[in-house]
């Protein structure tokens, strides 16, 4: 607009073209390149991860990810604990959405011990409700967080406040704010309290207001559009080569969603359609996550309407302190906020698990994909790329 | 065998063990951190020792309180403006964003988050520390200017918490850096964190939050504990 | 799914075929045929998505069991190929030319179990631990509790109100408690 008014058109032909590829020959002693550590102590990084950049001016030529700052050796610890003692331990593997790990341990032990169909219907609906609420509180921090990487701080303030209200609902239902321990083998631990649905509907109405305000703040904003469009493009051919799952795959048009492909719990009775886009850049992924926020609110309303009024919450299981599971192995997957998460569980007939291995979606996104996508971008755009790929370091190094 | 032969044999064994110890020490040094000779752009040869060239070999010094009404005024100023470093070291850092947002507002207590250790007063160690993070935390703690305070969040800093038998997390935080206030819980609620800040303010105003000086007094003991578990020590002894 | 498994069995000799769910199959395959089968599945049968690579330590049999878990996005089915390799000298052919994330899995397995994948890029870099000079930490004969007591400074005086002990006394009061049970519960 101003350019037209002043009669000024920038001549892009005068700028040198960007030809940066991954096999540039980097000679550190030529004093043209510099190594910068975007290290663990940085306010913009998602979690505790470090990226070692080789930079020419402000353009990144090579990137290397360093993880391991949050390593606790979970898989070794769980081998020393009984099946039910693995619950409080395995929840803390992923800090952002802890309920998915509870579901994994419950489902894997049920499948391997033959109680897979014994879980009552009311318990399964409650499991779905807690999983969707966990996705909602993760999205309330993630969608405005993308604006926060471009210095749009007010969205984060709104989003984290509303997330606190959802954590209040969790506290009513399960007893704790962050680590719930609600889903156990055989069912869940408690019923819905009285008046829960009314209070939840109040909170969801506040979130509807927030959704409209976030749209005006982020998607009608010229700074956000200029910086986010065309950044960190993922093409459909890269999806299977790198093993990309979840929102990052849907951002370039490849429709992958575990809730539709391998439905678990009662997702085939609900009415929803995962959103897709075609561009594959940061703007498209943020737009998809905003759509998922609307969809998750709708799903919670559907679940609360379709849920039976009362029923059994737990099947009759053997005494968990004296429980031996026969030899076997299984792989259970579900769709968390970041993509397809799965757990590989091996038992050997004793009262402790033999091996568990969590497959987090950030394992591929943060190491193999990030190192290739960052080449050619600016140093100031590293945080935007990391938040848009939803890298969560605790589940990379467990 | 005669005595001379025995002496020779012992000397040989000692020399071997020294060489072995040197070899073991050297395995964790990266090639860019070794002592070496480089060729300067004008052709002359310079000896470089990267770790010790850029830092001086000083030790931390105590900052003695001045006493009287000046100290009371300074303590009041320090207590009412605690600036916390924004470094989330463990899973307890998921309860820090609720503190920054309007529901459990900590700005009304004068507490802010700062991005760099040079401008901050307090450090919240939120939960467990793996050995890799402990090295960075020590480096960051020593870069903060005195007087500085540490708040240890969660039960993992007290006795290891639920990772007491892990090969990669530490058990007791106050063997490596001195702690002022412990906040128990797993996770502690944001209200518990605010209560911890109030307690810290009380301690500062009474003049009892002197753990940074204790670090300077018992520097060798802390350093020996740190070096025992951090085997690839490639930083100077005092990083400031 | 059953016809497909029979076709695969006639090409590469599969043992221990287990149908875990109606679209998840686990099968064991020999070390020589493993990468061949994985490439065939990726190129001709549509299993283009590698879900994970993992390893289990069977110390009683003296073997490591590697797992390649593949997923077919069209027919939405999974197949898990298990490969048994020797525990004393663990070496396996590298598969880093097939997918771009395999080098990360191979780097982690080398650090955690000690399995070597010759030719894999950046295999000697540390993944999660720095300055580790003990044996690889995920092996079954590495005792992590003993290592933690020895290196870190535990505070001691840990009192446990063990629910297993309490319930055992309540429900099975006449059963003798063996020394091994008492040690495992601590």
Describe the structure.
The complex is a heterotrimer of chains A (398), B (240) and C (186). Helices cover 43% and strands 12% of the residues of chain A. With 398 residues, chain A is an alpha+beta fold. Chain A has two domains: 2-66, no CATH class; 74-397, Cytochrome-c3 Hydrogenase, chain B. A three-stranded antiparallel beta sheet of chain A has the order 1-2-3. A three-stranded antiparallel beta sheet of chain A has the order 6-7-8. In chain A, strands 4-5 form a two-stranded antiparallel ribbon. In chain A, helix 5 (121-148) runs antiparallel to helix 6 (153-174), helix 5 runs antiparallel to helix 12 and helix 7 runs antiparallel to helix 12 (282-306). Chain B has a three-stranded parallel beta sheet with strand order 5-6-7. A two-stranded antiparallel ribbon of chain B has the order 1-2. The model of chain B has no long low-confidence stretch (mean pLDDT 83). Helix content of chain C is 30%, strand content 23%. The N and C termini of chain C lie far apart (46 Å). Chain C is globular, with a radius of gyration of 21 Å. The chains are: A alpha+beta (398), B alpha/beta (240), C alpha+beta (186).
SSE string of chain C, helix = H, strand = E? HEEHEEEHHHH
Identify low-pLDDT runs of chain C: none
Strand order of the largest sheet of chain C: 1-2-5-4-3
Q: Estimate the global geometry of chain A from the Cα principal axes.
A: globular
- Unreliable stretches of chain A, pLDDT < 50, 5 or more residues? none
Provide the residue-averaged pLDDT of chain A. Answer: 86
Secondary structure class of chain C reads: alpha+beta
Biggest sheet statistics of chain C: 5 strands, mixed
The strand count of chain A comes to: 8
**Rounded Rg of chain C:** 21 Å
Order of helices and strands of chain A: HEEEHHHHHEEHHHHHHEEEHHH
Shape of chain C: globular
Name of the top-level CATH class of the largest domain in chain A: Mainly Alpha
Oligomer: heterotrimer
Terminal CA distance of chain A: 51 Å
Strand content of chain A: 5-15%
């Amino acid at each position: 607009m101003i350019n037209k008014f002043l009669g000024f058109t920038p001549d892009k032909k005068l700028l040198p073209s960007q030809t940066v590829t991954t096999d540039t020959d980097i000679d550190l002693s030529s004093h043209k390149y510099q190594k910068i550590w975007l290290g663990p102590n940085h306010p913009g990084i998602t979690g505790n991860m470090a990226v070692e950049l080789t930079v020419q001016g402000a353009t990144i030529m090579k990137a290397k990810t360093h993880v391991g700052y949050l390593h606790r050796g979970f898989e070794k610890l769980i081998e020393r604990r009984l099946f039910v003692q693995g619950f409080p331990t395995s929840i803390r593997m992923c800090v952002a959405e802890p309920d998915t790990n509870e579901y994994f341990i419950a489902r894997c032990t049920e499948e391997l011990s033959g109680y897979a169909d014994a879980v009552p219907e009311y318990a399964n609906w409650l499991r779905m409700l807690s999983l969707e609420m966990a996705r909602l509180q993760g999205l309330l921090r993630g969608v405005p967080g993308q604006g926060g990487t471009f210095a749009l701080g007010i969205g984060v303030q709104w989003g984290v406040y509303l997330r606190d209200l959802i954590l209040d609902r969790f506290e009513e239902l399960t007893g704790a704010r962050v680590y719930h321990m609600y889903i156990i083998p055989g069912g869940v631990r408690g019923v819905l309290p009285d008046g829960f649905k009314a209070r939840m509907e109040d909170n969801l109405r506040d979130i509807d207001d927030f959704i409209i305000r976030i749209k005006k703040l982020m998607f009608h904003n010229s700074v956000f559009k200029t910086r986010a469009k065309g950044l960190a493009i993922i093409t459909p051919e890269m999806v299977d080569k790198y093993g990309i799952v979840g929102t990052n795959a849907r951002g370039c048009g490849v429709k992958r969603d575990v809730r539709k492909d391998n439905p678990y719990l009662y997702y085939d009775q609900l009415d929803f359609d995962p959103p897709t886009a075609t561009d594959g850049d940061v703007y498209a992924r943020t737009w998809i996550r905003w759509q998922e926020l609307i969809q998750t609110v709708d799903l919670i309303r559907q679940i609360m309407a379709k849920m039976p009024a009362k029923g059994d919450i737990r099947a009759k299981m053997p005494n968990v302190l004296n429980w031996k599971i026969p030899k076997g192995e299984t792989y259970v997957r579900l769709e968390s906020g970041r993509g397809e998460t799965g757990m590989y569980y091996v038992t050997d007939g004793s009262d402790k698990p033999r091996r568990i291995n969590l497959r987090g979606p950030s394992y591929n996104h943060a190491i193999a994909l990030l190192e290739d996508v960052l080449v050619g971008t600016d140093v100031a755009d590293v945080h935007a790329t990391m938040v848009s790929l939803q890298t969560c370091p605790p589940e990379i190094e467990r | 065998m005669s005595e001379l032969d025995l002496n020779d044999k012992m000397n040989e064994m000692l020399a071997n063990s020294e060489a072995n110890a040197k070899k073991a020490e050297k395995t964790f040094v990266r090639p860019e951190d070794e002592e070496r000779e480089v060729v300067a752009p004008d052709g002359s040869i310079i000896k470089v020792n990267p770790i010790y060239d850029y830092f001086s070999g000083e030790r931390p010094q105590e900052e003695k309180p001045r006493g009287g009404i000046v100290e009371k005024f300074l303590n009041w100023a320090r207590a009412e403006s605690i600036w916390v470093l924004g470094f989330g070291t463990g899973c307890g850092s998921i309860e820090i964003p609720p503190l920054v947002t309007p529901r459990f507002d900590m700005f009304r207590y004068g507490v802010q988050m700062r991005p760099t250790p040079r401008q901050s007063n307090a450090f919240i160690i939120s939960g467990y520390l793996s050995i890799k993070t402990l090295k960075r935390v020590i480096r960051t703690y020593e870069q903060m200017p005195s007087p500085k305070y540490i708040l240890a969040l969660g039960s993992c800093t007290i006795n290891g918490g639920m990772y007491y038998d892990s090969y990669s997390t530490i058990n007791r935080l106050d063997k490596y850096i001195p702690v002022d206030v412990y906040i128990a819980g797993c996770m502690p609620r944001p209200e518990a964190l605010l209560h911890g800040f109030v307690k810290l303010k009380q301690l500062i105003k009474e003049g009892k939050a002197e753990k940074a000086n204790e670090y300077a007094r018992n520097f060798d003991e802390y350093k020996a504990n740190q070096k025992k578990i951090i085997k690839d020590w490639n930083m100077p002894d005092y990083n400031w | 799914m059953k016809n497909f498994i029979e076709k695969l069995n006639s090409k590469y000799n599969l043992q221990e075929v287990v149908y875990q769910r109606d679209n998840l199959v686990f099968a064991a395959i020999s070390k020589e045929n493993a990468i061949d089968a994985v490439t065939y599945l990726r190129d001709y049968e549509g299993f283009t998505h590698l879900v994970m690579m993992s390893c289990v330590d069977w110390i009683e049999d003296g073997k490591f069991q590697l797992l390649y878990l593949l997923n077919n996005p069209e027919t939405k089915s999974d197949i898990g190929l298990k490969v048994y390799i020797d525990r004393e000298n663990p070496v396996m052919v590298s598969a880093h030319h097939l997918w771009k994330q395999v080098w990360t899995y191979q780097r982690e397995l080398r650090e955690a179990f000690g399995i070597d994948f010759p030719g894999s890029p950046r295999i000697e870099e540390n993944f999660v631990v720095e300055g580790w000079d003990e044996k690889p930490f995920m092996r079954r004969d590495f005792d992590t509790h003993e290592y933690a007591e020895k290196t870190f400074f535990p505070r001691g005086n840990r009192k446990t109100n063990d629910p297993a002990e309490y319930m055992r006394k309540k429900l099975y009061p006449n059963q003798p408690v063996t020394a091994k049970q008492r040690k495992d519960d601590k």
